[in-house]
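Entry 14. Structure prediction run on the chain below.
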Amino acid sequence: MEIIVVSGPSGAGKSTVAGILAGSRLSPSVHLHTDDFYAAVKQGFVAPYLPGAKEQNDVVTGVIARAAAGYAAGGYHVVVDGVIGPWYLGAYREAAAAAGVGLVYVVLRPDRETALAWGTERSGHPLTDREILGGIYDGFADLGPYEENVLDSGGLTAQETADAVLARLRSQGAH
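Output returned:
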């Protein structure tokens, strides 16, 4: 089994695509929504995009990575969705290696205007501020060696994006 990290900027469609993958495309499966792990911090919470959040983000990322590895080691395909830049892949690599499971990293990245439009239109989501969303998007604008992990989801439906992620998994021999 493997951990499938579906990452990208806010508003890229990560949660929807991860839900499709775990809900109907992979079996048995687990969907770990990173926002839920951040919401578990009740006292001392710092919004993860703020400069003072690094220590919190390191802890939460480690917890998510170890939970994902535990599920994968137990025989589940694990789909993790969140704003997980390459700077946090080390925690997932370590957890996957310790559990003896695979790791696949996919970055959904529509063009900037599409991501901002999708991000600001999310009803009920706590983060819809265009300026903050733009800053998060810019963090994914140039991923250097991880550009090969980018999937342009802008012109695709959520179902088509899920299909494209599965095609990548199959081509990498992970599924």
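The two ends are 8 Å apart (CA to CA).
Filed with the rest of this week's runs.
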